[in-house]
Amino acid sequence: MTYDAIVIGAGIAGSVVARQLAERGGQQVLVIEQRDHIGGNCYDRTDEAGVLVHEYGPHIFHTNDEGVYEYLSRFTEWYLYPQGHQVVAKVGDGLLPIPFNLNTLHQVYDEKKAAELERKLIETYGEGNRVPIMELKKSDDPDIQAIAQFVYENVFLRYTMKQWGQTPEEISPEVTGRVPVLISYDNRYFQDKYQGVPLDGFTPMFEAMLNHPNITVKLHTKATELLTIQEQAVLFEGKPYEGAIIFTGALDELYDCRFGRLPYRSLRFDFEHLETEDYQQKHSVVNYTVSEDFTRITEFVYLTGQREIGHLPCAGTTIVREYPFAYSGADGEIPYYAILNDENRALYEKYEVLTKAIPHFYLLGRLAEYKYYNMDAMARRALDLAEELIAAQK
Ligand code: UDP
Questions:
Q1: CA pair distance 110, 100, nearest whole angstrom
Q2: Phi and psi angles of residue 295, each rounded to the nearest 5 degrees, phi first
Q3: Tell me: the pLDDT tens digits for 299-331?
Q4: Which atom of ligand 1 is nearest the CA belonging to 163?
Q5: Atom in ligand 1 nearest the alpha carbon of residue 98
Q6: pTM attached to this predicted model
Q7: Is the peptide bond before 213 cis (omega within 30 degrees of 0)?
Q8: Digit-coded pLDDT (tens) for 44-62
Q9: Sign of the torsion formed by the C-alpha atoms of 385, 388, 391 and 392
Q10: What distance in Å separates the CA atoms of residue 309 and residue 65, rounded to the nearest whole number?
Q11: Of 230, 283, 370, 393, which is the most buried if we count CB atoms within 10 A?
Q12: pLDDT value at 91 more than 90
């Protein structure tokens, strides 16, 4: 079989680009995946009790991109959260709405003080606006300073130390900026129009996407088993390969980390099944922002809507705790998050330059591009790359 394109990795980036090249481009596409399943880190499955769990931590699809929503809707129906995705932080005995918003403000301060602070926040930043914590901290108004300090200490400092091993000052502002202070009474974690998960799970959505006569998926196969990367060419099964290669894996590992390892954060997931209906009072995600060694606990029946919808019967409830640590590259470890800073970016670029010498070699995804993509942005980027490649073949 000759393939017009080879896609390395069957996560969201690889699966979307493969489907487009196969369907719209009429190309024969080989997808190589090193794990024994498709879906990348979106992969989900039912556990022994029938609870649908996300094997690699909670994944919530959210978007304002109508095109991406429509596209993925070809492969799945959705369970859209009636109230949007909501998160609380466990602080002392209380649960605070996250992102910190005007509801949180009124929970933290007494009525009179909260009303005063609310007026000041609205005057300063404008109603409905989003203010990153690192921005709020720059205010020289003592009242706003006090709020900023509260949010910094109770929401960001400990959680960020656990997640990144660094303080909020040390990490990229882009990262803490993902969860800004909201000058509104909006308890939703995301402000996007569509928020939810595939009705029957992510894995069936990926199965439908990759189910196309022009797509061949090889699981349990490392890219390097089939491909040899040379200075200016690629060999496929030992022979020169002229087609497109879309690589979605970790770029340093493709080059045996010759310039040193790209730093990533990894996670250990600790799953627990409980013979009770409810563990965290109907909250799908509780962040532990001031205590514990784990960052958050996800209770899957609420994340997936499984019990609410009632279409997949299950007994009890399953939770997962997330323990972050520095990725070392050891067997079995998974790199989840690029650590965004100038030094790491410069190292990344040394590897990127190597790939530029290879014709038709494309980098796509969180790992291959060393970026913090959300699922919808990833799907968008994959759709756009596929269009470029299809246009170029004409
Ligand atoms: N963050 C935090 N406390 C929270 C939520 C988020 O300190 O309660 C910070 C933390 O540094 C985290 C970042 O904001 O890594 C981005 O959070 P997000 O929920 O987007 O992370 P993800 O779900 O992608 O792991």
A1: 16
A2: -85, -40
A3: 999 999 999 999 999 999 999 999 999 999 999
A4: 15
A5: 8
A6: 0.97
A7: no
A8: 999 999 999 999 999 999 9
A9: negative
A10: 26
A11: 370
A12: yes
